[in-house]
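Propose amino acids for all 416 sites.
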């Protein structure tokens, strides 16, 4: 199959305008976004995305997890579609590009195909996966996990946010519970464009990351139970301060990750203190440990060591420890043919590129289990992400989207 000519490029100005228009929905407080999954802001963003897809002549399907699939017809309707996309939901202090570049970059590819009258054998589908972030409803990559058959849909529907609202009820409330059976769609291939969310590409001066593998993840949700007592009148020797146990376990997570450098990271990002009153010794603390590595044995060893050591450290300060696995996926190796299409596109287009392992998790990590999948990365300023100051350049956005266009066209087979 001849690859598209290197002169085929997307409309960079239109892509940038579209990104900025989406950024107006669910604004943060510091220039980024707070468009958390299944909120009214998410619903507004979905509606805008749907209007753009329909204006580009695509037909929209929605599955029972709310994932959106906008299809551009192919010349052979029986050929399995080539999918491309990511997620429109953001962190509470998210940036304008995490996930969004992958969805709107895919839309830009379709708009460019329309402009040039490009026809493909395989249909093309642009995807917006529900709840990639897993911050309001854990775990992350929830809808793609159900699609890949690794997470039960009922489990997903029952997940609760900090206010006790259920995922299934919120999906219904915002009117985005579709009727398609999750996972019924079969894919010829899937490509996901995403910002790197780390410092490597910018530091190496590369425009494109050819993602060969990804880190795996273990989220361990832990509960510490001490005793809520008066911070003034309770003698120190009588205290069972859950906060002291948390301090020890925070250090433990760091020490374990440091033992496995350079192939490991670990932190505690989510912490709920109860009753969280200035003059009550913390009675109960629920927190989540986030371990990652692209080496499966390392990932498993870190989780094991933490769970073996944590109860004793907590008990030494009179606090009870319990935990459960609240999120997981093993390190993915992406499809070689799709990775080659990404690398070939970057070469044809003359973009500097390097192989890279994805530090963050993505929907592609789950879909990689059910379809040939690859990812394309572009740099982000100072490697900053999951922060409202997340920034990329229009040139980086265009380079990544050009590569996405070429990899998808090569895989979907241009005809005529
Ligand atoms: O947690 C992750 O890696 C992704 O950003 N949700
Ligand atoms: Mn993302
Ligand atoms: Mn993210």
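Proposal:
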């Amino acid at each position: 199959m001849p690859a598209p000519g290197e002169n085929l490029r997307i409309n960079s100005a239109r892509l940038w305008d579209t990104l900025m228009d989406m950024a107006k929905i669910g604004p943060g407080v510091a220039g980024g976004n707070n468009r958390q999954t299944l909120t009214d802001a998410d619903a507004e963003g979905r509606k805008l995305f749907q209007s753009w897809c329909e204006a580009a002549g695509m037909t929209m399907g929605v599955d029972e997890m709310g994932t959106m699939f906008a299809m551009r017809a192919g010349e052979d309707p029986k050929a399995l579609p080539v999918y491309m996309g990511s997620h429109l939901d953001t962190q509470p202090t998210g940036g304008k590009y995490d996930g969004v570049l992958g969805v709107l970059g895919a839309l830009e590819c379709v708009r460019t195909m329309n402009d040039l009258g490009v026809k493909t054998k395989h249909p093309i589908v642009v995807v917006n996966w529900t709840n990639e972030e897993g911050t309001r409803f854990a775990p992350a990559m929830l809808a793609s996990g159900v699609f890949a058959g690794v997470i039960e849909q009922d489990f997903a529907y029952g997940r609760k946010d900090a206010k006790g609202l259920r995922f299934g009820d919120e999906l219904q409330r915002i009117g985005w519970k579709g009727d398609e059976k999750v996972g019924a769609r079969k894919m010829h291939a899937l490509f996901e464009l995403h910002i790197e969310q780390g410092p490597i590409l910018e530091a190496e001066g590369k425009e494109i990351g050819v993602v060969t593998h990804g880190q795996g993840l273990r989220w361990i949700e832990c509960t510490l139970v001490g005793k809520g007592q008066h911070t003034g009148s309770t003698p120190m020797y009588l205290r069972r301060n859950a906060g002291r146990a948390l301090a020890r376990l925070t250090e433990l997570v760091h020490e374990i990750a440091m033992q496995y450098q350079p192939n490991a990271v670990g932190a505690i990002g989510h912490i709920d203190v109860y009753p969280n009153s200035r003059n009550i010794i913390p009675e109960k603390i629920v927190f989540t440990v986030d371990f990652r590595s692209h080496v499966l044995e390392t990932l498993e060893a870190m989780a094991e060591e933490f769970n073996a050591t944590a109860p004793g450290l907590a008990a030494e300060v009179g606090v009870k420890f319990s935990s459960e696995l609240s999120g997981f996926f093993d390190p993915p190796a992406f499809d070689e043919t799709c990775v080659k299409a990404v690398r070939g596109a970057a070469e044809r287009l003359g973009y500097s590129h390097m192989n890279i392992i994805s530090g963050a998790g993505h929907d592609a990590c789950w879909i990689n289990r059910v379809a040939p999948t690859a990812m394309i990365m572009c740099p982000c300023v100072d490697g900053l992400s999951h922060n409202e100051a997340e920034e990329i350049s229009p040139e980086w956005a265009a380079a990544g989207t050009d590569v996405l266009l070429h990899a998808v066209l090569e895989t979907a087979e241009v005809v005529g």
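The chain has twelve helices and 14 strands. The two ends are 12 Å apart (CA to CA).
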